[in-house]
Amino acid sequence: MNKTILNNRYRIINTLASGGFGETFLAQDTQMPSGRLCVIKQLKPIVNNPQIYQIVQDRFQREAAILEELGETNYQIPRLYAYFTENGKFYLVQEWIEGETLTKKLQTEGLFNEDSVRQILINLLPVLDYIHSKRIIHRDIKPGNIIWREKDDLPVLIDFGAVKELMGTTLNSQGNPSRSIIIGTPGFMPPEQAAGHPVYASDLYSLGLTIIYLLTGKNPRQLPTNSQWENLSTNITPQLAETLNKIIQPNPSDRYSTAAEMLHSLKFGPTAMIPTVPSPPPPILLPLSEASPTPAPTSVTLPPSETLSSSQSVVSHPPVPKKTHQMGDWLKAVITGSIIGSFILIGIVLSHIFPSIINSIFPKKSQENIDISTTNINPEKTTTPSPKSTTSPQSQTPKTPLVNSISEIEAKKLIETWLEAKGKMFSPPYNSQIAKELTTGYFYEKTAGINGSINWLKSNKAYYKYGIQRLESVEQFFADRDIATIKVRITEEYSLYRNGKIDPSETDFKTLTIIYNLKLVDGQWKISNSRTL
User: Is residue 383 scored above 70 in pLDDT?
Assistant: First the structure.
């Protein structure tokens, strides 16, 4: 296949994987100036029947549309570049994620510790909350389907099960299409999914066993029972063990019902009261004969994890494709929990003045398992383990999780500093050093990278001129350890000049709502991404 050209466009480089449903290739897009790399999934129906082929072809377009929406609206799901059929086979062309699967990372770096798996959960649970809000169940979560992306140290969820299930279509005794296979991986698949009845909590079960695999190095099928995993792992706090044991219960009703509940348990403890959060709508498991588009789901809010900036951001970034990121209503629950924690902190302070009164209102027991994540501190004095070192041998004692994070006042000041700096970055002398001081990850690449805005402006003899730049209000704020999200209203007046002439299409004066993602890097808080609503 090394010299094969698919669809007169994609040159196969090598084979990445091969299985019962087809093959996966690394390929080069010959019709893109960059010759970008991409992943091509070749899929073939397991039954060679013209009637089945037509059914699969009709549904294939629908499933591709779902994958396109997920990849375009969540930065931790690969983008779908294209789909096509050729010689009786079906092809998906997806974004190439540069990094290692968690399986490979375990093999090369050893067992994960508690701090590292907590970071995986904190970054991945919002992704599950998002896809569940879209009425989708992944159905094949396992270490091999989670890639640790190199450029930003975020877990990326790949290989959704719906398309593979579609390829297993057969005809029953009445001549009607039916599903002949169960999607999932033995050991990581819960009982109800193996029986053909997956629910949202099925994905959480698989994620829980994935984390146990990372902590112990044992495939779940190597354990006599799921509950015996604790005997193989050291230095795990009772709180994490209790959370994991709850999510791997055989009966779905005994688990957390949503990703938001599991995230709340991680942050505030398994015994903490779970705020009332609307459950996602029932998943869509349509008959194979139905090929109508999925009804548009309700909109969801942004999670406190990194997202790719939208091309509709305040500053135009022509070379960068559009990306957004959303999540369900769990953010409200987390904020509510933080507010409750803040009141308890005030109670602790007052208890030094009015011990007899305060102790009767805030008994000592009620103060357990409280994570006050928005306490004001100086971020320069905060130390956070680098994501690059999140995996370590089992013998290493896990680092104590941080309790404090950036405050809302400090986050607001960072955004105001960014607004003030834009005039120096996006007009002569195009000071890119400021971008290094204020941005990180993809946001830095988008601003000062090779294909970033600064270089684009230089190459096109263009610059921005700013008038009023004002942060009007903070609408939402969330912080947890080394990541934070702030939603603000910003009023800005700007004009783009090309060759000395104003460009009316890039000239405006308006107030926008923007979500900024922040990250602590080497003791300094920086902007990692943004999205304009």
Answer: no
Does the pTM of the predicted model rise above 0.90?
Answer: no
Torsion of CA 426, 494, 472, 477, to 10 degrees: -40
Which DSSP string do the residues of 336-390 spell out, in sequence order? HHHHHHHHHHHHHHHTTTSHHHHHHHS-GGGGTT---TT----GGG-----GGG-
261: in domain: yes
| Residue where a domain terminates, one of 269, 284, 301 | 269
Residue 89 lies in a domain: yes
> Do 364 and 382 have their domain in common?
yes
Q: Which tokens is 170 given?
A: 């057969």
pLDDT at 278: 58
- Can you give the residue range of the structural domain that contains 164? 99-171+184-269
Confidence band, pLDDT 50/70/90 cuts, at residue 274: low
Active site annotation includes 140:
yes
Between CA 470 and CA 491 the distance in angstroms is 5
Mean model confidence pLDDT for the chain: 77
CATH number of residue 57's parent domain = 3.30.200.20
Other CB atoms within 10 A of residue 246 CB: 17
| In contact, 374 and 477? CB cutoff 8 Å | yes
Q: Are residues 237 and 90 in the same domain?
A: no
Cα-Cα-Cα-Cα torsion 94, 485, 245, 208, nearest 10 degrees, comes to 10
Given a cut of 50, whether residue 175 has pLDDT beyond it is yes
pLDDT at 181: 74
* Strand ranges of the sheet holding 89-95, from the earlier edge strand across to the other edge: 5-6, 10-19, 22-29, 37-43, 89-95, 80-86
> Of 96, 125, 158, which closes a domain?
96
251 class by beta-carbon count within 10 Å (0-12 exposed, 13-18 middle, 19+ buried): exposed
Judge if 118 and 87 occupy the same domain.
no
Residues 78 and 161 in one domain: no
Q: Which of 29, 115, 129, 140 is catalytic?
A: 140
pLDDT of residue 230: 85
